[in-house]
Amino acid sequence: MQRPTQDFADRPPWTRPGFIASAALVLAVIIAAIIVAVSSLRNDGTGAPGAPAASPTPTGSSTPVALPTTVPSTAPAGVRWELVGQNAVPVSESAGPSRISDGTAAGYAHTPEGALIAAAQLSTRAGYSAGRQSWEPTIQQQFEPGADRDRLLAALRGAGDAPAGPGELSQIAGYQYQSYTPDTAVIGLVFRAPAAGTPRYHVLSLTLRWREGDWRMVAPPGGAWTSVNRQTTDLVGVVEWGAR
User: Fold this and answer.
1) The total number of structural domains that make up the chain
2) What are phi and psi of 28, to 5 degrees?
3) When comparing pLDDT for 102 and 23, which is higher?
């Protein structure tokens, strides 16, 4: 007896053999894709067979650390004084300089104290009495480039050889911050003139800027220190500071 021919035309599509075969093929493709994806994830270093997933690297706080801006109202502690020629200059373990070589002193803290130490060191080392082995590399390397810096260098190079005698140079006697931000410091460095009788002082208004990880001096207008110098006979508003 001949078996009747099956007719799938009136059956739901998901019960037809062709539909079932196609669904099985699609399922196989999906499973294969998942296997490939998992394998790739493990091979690119983000995971490994039998090992836990790597923990995300902490990113830390996105808030920048605030730099100190409070200027010292008393002389910085922990400072020793060393001679550069006949002038005493300050050195601090915490504020700098951290590198002294070939007539230069660099590596100052990004703080008000660091700017103060830099002002004293750089202005002294850039002076004629420090000697060419000091003022030339200091001005070339640690002063901001510009016409005023070039004029200062030219003036020193054209000066005659007349070294100061003992006791003829002014020495640091104090300071006053005229303004301070982490980018720019203006410091009045006070010097006591080597004169008998009533003490006389002069104040150099020195500008420093934070550049390339260190304090740099701004050359005086016209390359002349007299343009930022004023005389006084008292220390009102000045923090006394200097070698003893």
Assistant:
1) 1
2) -65, -40
3) 102
